[in-house]
Amino acid sequence: MSTRQPQIAFSAREFRDTLGHFASGVTVVTAVLDGVPAGLTCQSFFSVSLEPPLVSFSVAVSSLTYPVIRDAGAFCVNVLAHTQRHVSDQFARSGGDKWRGIAWRPTAAGNPVIEGAHIWIDCLLEAEHRAGDHHIVIGRVRELGPASGAAGRPLLYYRGGYHTFG
C-alpha cells in the first residue's frame, strides 16, 4: 500500500456528483437503546460475505444518531419501498422526532422494522472502521425477511433524487 498522497484534480462537489451516477437503494438503519428507538437514512449499504453472513453500511463521523446505534450493539437495516420517500426524508433530518407517524414492529432482538419496508436485515454490530470522514460498519446478520412492502419495488437514489423501477 502506498503512503504517498495522490494529487487530487477534482473538487468534493465533482466527486459527489460523479458518484451520484451510481444508483443505490435507500435504507433506514434502526436500533433501540434503553427502550428508545433510533434511526438514520443511509444509501451506502451492501453485502460483504455469505459465510459468515455479513453486511455493511457507512455513516458520517458527524452523525448524532450513529453513536446510539453503536452503543446498542445491534441494528436493523430497513430497505425502503418505493412509496417511502417521506420515511427517507424524515430519518435524514438531524434532530426532532424522527419516529413521529412511523409505525414499526420489533425484530426478535427488539430492533425496529419499519412498517411497509421492502425488506429488513437484523444484525449484531461486528466491527467498525474509520475511513476518512465516515465509519464503515459491519454487521453479522442474525435475522431477515420481507416486510409488508416486499411485493412492491425498492426506493432508489440516483443523481440527487429518488427513483424506482418503471
Question: In words, what does this structure look like?
Answer:
The protein has 166 residues and is mainly β. It has one domain (25-160): Electron Transport, Fmn-binding Protein, Chain A (Pnp Oxidase, Chain A), CATH 2.30.110. It has helices at 12-19, 66-72, 85-92, and strands spanning 24-25, 27-33, 36-42, 45-49, 54-60, 74-79, 104-106, 112-114, 119-131, 134-146, 156-158, 161-163. It has a seven-stranded antiparallel sheet with strand order 3-2-6-9-10-5-4. Strands 1-11-12 form a three-stranded antiparallel sheet, with no helix packed on it. Strands 7-8 form a two-stranded antiparallel sheet. Strand 7 (104-106) and strand 8 (112-114) form a beta hairpin. It is globular and about 50 Å long.
At a glance:
With 166 residues, this protein is mostly beta strands.
Question: Which characteristics define this entry?
Answer:
single chain; 166 residues; mainly beta; Pnp Oxidase, Chain A; seven-stranded antiparallel beta sheet; three-stranded antiparallel beta sheet; 3 helices; 14% helix; globular
CATH T-level topology: Pnp Oxidase, Chain A
The whole-number mean of residue pLDDT values reads 92
Helical segment count? 3
- The proportion of residues forming helix, as a percent range, comes to 10-25%
Q: Give the class from helix and strand content and strand pairing.
A: mainly beta
CATH superfamily: Electron Transport, Fmn-binding Protein, Chain A
Task: Describe the strand arrangement of the main beta sheet, using strand numbers.
Answer: 3-2-6-9-10-5-4
Total count of strands = 12
CATH architectural name: Roll
Q: Runs with pLDDT <50, length 5+? A: none
Strand content: 35-45%
Distance between the termini: 43 Å
Supply the number of structural domains: 1
